[in-house]
Amino acid sequence: MKKTLIVQAPAKINIGLWVKNRRPDGFHDLETIFQTISLMDNITLHESFEEGIRITCNNKNVPTGSDNIAFKAARLFLERLGIEPALDIHIDKRIPMAAGLAGGSTDAAAVLTGLARLYERTVTPSEFMEMASFLGSDVPFLIKGGLARGVGRGEKLEFYDFPKNQLVVVIVMPNDVSVSTKWCYENYTPGNNEIKARSFEMILEAYQNCDLDSLKKVVFNDLESVTLQRYPIIQRIKELLSSTGDGVVLMSGSGPSVFGLFEDKRKALYAVNALKGIPAQIYVEHICKKKI
Fold it and tell me: What is the domain-level CATH number for residue 265?
Protein backbone atom coordinates (compact mmCIF):
# COMPACT_ATOMS: atom_id res chain seq x y z
CA MET A 1 0.00 0.00 0.00
CA LYS A 2 1.35 3.41 -0.97
CA LYS A 3 1.86 5.79 1.93
CA THR A 4 1.06 9.48 2.43
CA LEU A 5 2.62 11.84 4.96
CA ILE A 6 1.88 15.50 5.76
CA VAL A 7 4.71 17.57 7.27
CA GLN A 8 4.77 21.17 8.46
CA ALA A 9 7.30 23.68 7.15
CA PRO A 10 7.59 26.75 9.41
CA ALA A 11 8.87 30.15 8.30
CA LYS A 12 11.82 31.80 10.02
CA ILE A 13 12.67 35.32 11.05
CA ASN A 14 16.12 36.84 11.60
CA ILE A 15 16.33 38.45 15.00
CA GLY A 16 19.35 40.50 14.05
CA LEU A 17 21.48 40.18 10.93
CA TRP A 18 25.14 41.16 10.88
CA VAL A 19 26.66 41.07 7.39
CA LYS A 20 30.44 40.91 7.44
CA ASN A 21 32.96 40.92 4.61
CA ARG A 22 32.59 39.27 1.21
CA ARG A 23 34.20 35.83 0.95
CA PRO A 24 36.32 34.51 -1.93
CA ASP A 25 33.34 32.38 -3.07
CA GLY A 26 31.27 35.55 -3.61
CA PHE A 27 29.07 35.09 -0.53
CA HIS A 28 29.27 37.19 2.62
CA ASP A 29 30.16 35.95 6.07
CA LEU A 30 27.30 36.77 8.37
CA GLU A 31 25.95 36.27 11.86
CA THR A 32 22.29 36.00 12.66
CA ILE A 33 19.79 34.65 15.16
CA PHE A 34 17.23 32.37 13.55
CA GLN A 35 13.78 31.73 15.04
CA THR A 36 11.02 29.57 13.58
CA ILE A 37 7.46 30.88 13.78
CA SER A 38 3.98 29.38 13.46
CA LEU A 39 3.42 30.69 9.93
CA MET A 40 3.77 27.42 8.01
CA ASP A 41 3.40 25.63 4.70
CA ASN A 42 2.02 22.09 4.72
CA ILE A 43 3.83 19.56 2.55
CA THR A 44 2.06 16.36 1.47
CA LEU A 45 4.34 13.51 0.40
CA HIS A 46 2.67 10.64 -1.42
CA GLU A 47 4.25 7.49 -2.78
CA SER A 48 3.14 7.06 -6.38
CA PHE A 49 2.74 4.17 -8.82
CA GLU A 50 4.13 6.49 -11.51
CA GLU A 51 7.87 7.00 -11.87
CA GLY A 52 9.39 10.43 -11.30
CA ILE A 53 8.88 13.38 -8.95
CA ARG A 54 5.88 15.66 -9.40
CA ILE A 55 5.21 18.96 -7.60
CA THR A 56 1.81 20.63 -7.27
CA CYS A 57 0.98 23.79 -5.32
CA ASN A 58 -2.08 25.83 -4.40
CA ASN A 59 -0.16 29.00 -5.41
CA LYS A 60 0.15 29.29 -9.19
CA ASN A 61 3.24 31.51 -8.81
CA VAL A 62 5.29 28.71 -7.25
CA PRO A 63 7.37 26.85 -9.86
CA THR A 64 6.51 23.16 -10.05
CA GLY A 65 9.39 21.88 -12.16
CA SER A 66 12.94 20.81 -11.40
CA ASP A 67 13.83 24.40 -10.41
CA ASN A 68 11.65 24.13 -7.29
CA ILE A 69 13.89 23.64 -4.24
CA ALA A 70 11.49 21.05 -2.80
CA PHE A 71 11.94 19.06 -6.02
CA LYS A 72 15.72 19.37 -5.66
CA ALA A 73 15.51 18.20 -2.05
CA ALA A 74 13.46 15.15 -3.00
CA ARG A 75 15.78 14.24 -5.87
CA LEU A 76 18.86 14.62 -3.66
CA PHE A 77 17.38 12.49 -0.86
CA LEU A 78 16.24 9.70 -3.18
CA GLU A 79 19.58 9.60 -4.99
CA ARG A 80 21.59 9.52 -1.76
CA LEU A 81 19.52 6.67 -0.33
CA GLY A 82 19.21 4.73 -3.57
CA ILE A 83 15.43 4.95 -3.81
CA GLU A 84 13.77 4.92 -7.22
CA PRO A 85 11.78 8.17 -7.59
CA ALA A 86 8.01 7.65 -7.62
CA LEU A 87 6.71 10.56 -5.58
CA ASP A 88 4.02 13.23 -5.59
CA ILE A 89 4.61 16.38 -3.52
CA HIS A 90 1.88 18.93 -2.86
CA ILE A 91 2.80 22.27 -1.31
CA ASP A 92 -0.01 24.07 0.51
CA LYS A 93 1.69 27.45 0.42
CA ARG A 94 0.87 29.88 3.23
CA ILE A 95 4.24 31.59 3.65
CA PRO A 96 4.44 34.53 1.21
CA MET A 97 7.02 34.13 -1.55
CA ALA A 98 10.26 36.11 -1.75
CA ALA A 99 9.58 37.65 1.65
CA GLY A 100 12.79 37.01 3.58
CA LEU A 101 11.01 34.26 5.54
CA ALA A 102 12.74 31.22 3.92
CA GLY A 103 9.53 29.90 2.39
CA GLY A 104 11.37 27.81 -0.19
CA SER A 105 14.14 26.67 2.13
CA THR A 106 11.71 25.44 4.76
CA ASP A 107 9.82 23.41 2.15
CA ALA A 108 13.11 21.75 1.19
CA ALA A 109 13.92 20.97 4.83
CA ALA A 110 10.45 19.50 5.37
CA VAL A 111 10.84 17.29 2.30
CA LEU A 112 14.19 15.93 3.53
CA THR A 113 12.95 15.08 7.03
CA GLY A 114 9.55 13.94 5.76
CA LEU A 115 10.98 11.50 3.22
CA ALA A 116 13.07 9.85 5.93
CA ARG A 117 9.83 9.15 7.79
CA LEU A 118 7.85 8.20 4.68
CA TYR A 119 10.41 5.60 3.60
CA GLU A 120 11.34 4.64 7.18
CA ARG A 121 15.03 5.27 6.62
CA THR A 122 17.52 6.15 9.35
CA VAL A 123 19.29 9.40 8.52
CA THR A 124 21.70 10.91 11.04
CA PRO A 125 21.56 14.61 11.92
CA SER A 126 24.95 15.12 10.23
CA GLU A 127 23.64 13.48 7.02
CA PHE A 128 20.57 15.73 7.09
CA MET A 129 22.79 18.78 7.58
CA GLU A 130 25.12 17.78 4.74
CA MET A 131 22.22 17.45 2.30
CA ALA A 132 20.65 20.66 3.60
CA SER A 133 23.90 22.63 3.14
CA PHE A 134 24.03 21.49 -0.47
CA LEU A 135 20.55 22.95 -1.07
CA GLY A 136 20.95 26.40 0.50
CA SER A 137 22.23 28.50 3.40
CA ASP A 138 18.95 28.59 5.39
CA VAL A 139 18.03 24.91 4.93
CA PRO A 140 20.34 23.48 7.66
CA PHE A 141 18.69 25.61 10.35
CA LEU A 142 15.22 24.64 9.17
CA ILE A 143 16.01 20.94 9.43
CA LYS A 144 15.78 21.38 13.20
CA GLY A 145 14.29 24.84 13.73
CA GLY A 146 13.65 26.53 17.06
CA LEU A 147 16.26 29.10 18.07
CA ALA A 148 19.82 29.14 16.76
CA ARG A 149 22.76 31.40 16.10
CA GLY A 150 24.07 31.06 12.56
CA VAL A 151 27.52 32.05 11.28
CA GLY A 152 29.47 31.53 8.06
CA ARG A 153 26.80 31.68 5.37
CA GLY A 154 24.30 30.89 8.14
CA GLU A 155 24.88 27.14 7.88
CA LYS A 156 27.17 26.86 10.94
CA LEU A 157 24.71 26.63 13.79
CA GLU A 158 24.54 26.68 17.56
CA PHE A 159 21.10 25.92 18.99
CA TYR A 160 19.73 27.48 22.17
CA ASP A 161 16.94 26.97 24.67
CA PHE A 162 13.59 28.38 23.71
CA PRO A 163 12.81 31.88 25.11
CA LYS A 164 11.06 31.72 28.48
CA ASN A 165 7.84 33.29 27.15
CA GLN A 166 5.74 32.64 24.04
CA LEU A 167 6.15 35.89 22.15
CA VAL A 168 3.61 36.99 19.55
CA VAL A 169 4.97 37.73 16.07
CA VAL A 170 3.34 40.09 13.56
CA ILE A 171 4.48 39.60 9.96
CA VAL A 172 3.78 42.36 7.43
CA MET A 173 4.45 41.61 3.76
CA PRO A 174 3.93 44.66 1.50
CA ASN A 175 2.04 43.98 -1.71
CA ASP A 176 3.81 44.16 -5.07
CA VAL A 177 7.29 44.53 -3.56
CA SER A 178 9.98 42.04 -4.52
CA VAL A 179 13.54 42.27 -3.25
CA SER A 180 16.44 40.44 -4.89
CA THR A 181 18.64 38.94 -2.17
CA LYS A 182 21.57 38.95 -4.59
CA TRP A 183 21.06 42.66 -5.35
CA CYS A 184 20.77 43.46 -1.66
CA TYR A 185 24.05 41.80 -0.71
CA GLU A 186 25.89 43.22 -3.72
CA ASN A 187 24.92 46.75 -2.69
CA TYR A 188 25.72 46.39 1.01
CA THR A 189 28.80 48.12 2.49
CA PRO A 190 30.13 46.55 5.73
CA GLY A 191 30.31 48.76 8.82
CA ASN A 192 31.98 48.72 12.26
CA ASN A 193 32.31 45.02 13.12
CA GLU A 194 33.71 45.59 16.60
CA ILE A 195 30.59 47.41 17.78
CA LYS A 196 28.32 44.84 16.11
CA ALA A 197 30.14 41.92 17.76
CA ARG A 198 29.32 43.38 21.21
CA SER A 199 25.73 44.04 20.21
CA PHE A 200 25.14 40.47 19.09
CA GLU A 201 25.94 39.05 22.50
CA MET A 202 23.37 41.42 24.00
CA ILE A 203 20.78 40.62 21.31
CA LEU A 204 20.79 36.91 22.09
CA GLU A 205 20.62 37.42 25.86
CA ALA A 206 17.80 39.97 25.65
CA TYR A 207 15.80 37.79 23.27
CA GLN A 208 16.13 34.62 25.36
CA ASN A 209 14.98 36.60 28.41
CA CYS A 210 12.12 38.15 26.40
CA ASP A 211 13.44 41.55 27.47
CA LEU A 212 11.97 43.51 24.58
CA ASP A 213 12.99 46.91 25.94
CA SER A 214 16.66 45.89 25.97
CA LEU A 215 16.36 44.06 22.65
CA LYS A 216 14.93 47.16 21.00
CA LYS A 217 18.07 49.12 21.89
CA VAL A 218 20.60 46.70 20.37
CA VAL A 219 18.96 44.69 17.58
CA PHE A 220 19.81 45.52 13.97
CA ASN A 221 19.62 44.17 10.42
CA ASP A 222 22.48 45.40 8.25
CA LEU A 223 20.53 44.86 5.03
CA GLU A 224 17.97 47.50 6.02
CA SER A 225 20.57 50.09 4.96
CA VAL A 226 20.11 48.85 1.38
CA THR A 227 16.49 47.73 1.13
CA LEU A 228 14.76 50.57 3.02
CA GLN A 229 16.46 53.18 0.86
CA ARG A 230 15.03 51.69 -2.32
CA TYR A 231 11.61 50.73 -0.94
CA PRO A 232 10.18 53.51 1.29
CA ILE A 233 7.02 51.45 1.96
CA ILE A 234 9.12 49.09 4.11
CA GLN A 235 10.38 51.99 6.21
CA ARG A 236 6.79 53.24 6.55
CA ILE A 237 5.61 49.82 7.74
CA LYS A 238 8.39 49.75 10.32
CA GLU A 239 7.43 53.18 11.61
CA LEU A 240 3.72 52.37 11.88
CA LEU A 241 4.17 48.94 13.48
CA SER A 242 6.51 50.39 16.10
CA SER A 243 4.40 53.51 16.73
CA THR A 244 2.77 52.09 19.88
CA GLY A 245 6.22 51.59 21.44
CA ASP A 246 5.29 48.08 22.60
CA GLY A 247 7.23 45.83 20.25
CA VAL A 248 10.57 45.20 18.59
CA VAL A 249 10.26 45.81 14.84
CA LEU A 250 12.77 44.76 12.21
CA MET A 251 13.01 43.69 8.58
CA SER A 252 13.57 39.94 8.17
CA GLY A 253 16.50 38.88 6.02
CA SER A 254 16.80 40.95 2.85
CA GLY A 255 13.10 41.80 3.07
CA PRO A 256 10.62 42.94 2.09
CA SER A 257 8.72 41.47 5.03
CA VAL A 258 8.81 43.24 8.40
CA PHE A 259 8.16 41.53 11.72
CA GLY A 260 7.24 42.78 15.16
CA LEU A 261 7.78 40.91 18.44
CA PHE A 262 5.22 41.59 21.17
CA GLU A 263 4.63 40.33 24.71
CA ASP A 264 1.02 39.34 24.06
CA LYS A 265 -1.68 39.28 21.41
CA ARG A 266 -3.46 42.37 22.74
CA LYS A 267 -0.38 44.53 22.21
CA ALA A 268 0.25 42.93 18.82
CA LEU A 269 -3.27 43.65 17.55
CA TYR A 270 -3.11 47.20 18.88
CA ALA A 271 0.05 47.75 16.82
CA VAL A 272 -1.58 46.17 13.75
CA ASN A 273 -4.35 48.79 13.92
CA ALA A 274 -1.79 51.42 12.91
CA LEU A 275 -1.32 49.65 9.58
CA LYS A 276 -4.85 50.33 8.28
CA GLY A 277 -4.69 51.43 4.67
CA ILE A 278 -1.24 49.94 4.06
CA PRO A 279 -1.36 47.52 1.08
CA ALA A 280 0.11 44.44 2.71
CA GLN A 281 -0.55 40.92 3.90
CA ILE A 282 -0.56 40.74 7.71
CA TYR A 283 -0.13 37.61 9.82
CA VAL A 284 -0.37 37.34 13.61
CA GLU A 285 1.62 34.30 14.70
CA HIS A 286 3.90 33.15 17.54
CA ILE A 287 7.41 31.79 17.90
CA CYS A 288 7.58 28.01 17.78
CA LYS A 289 9.85 25.00 18.19
CA LYS A 290 10.62 22.45 15.51
CA LYS A 291 12.83 19.40 15.85
CA ILE A 292 13.98 16.60 13.56
Answer: 3.30.70.890
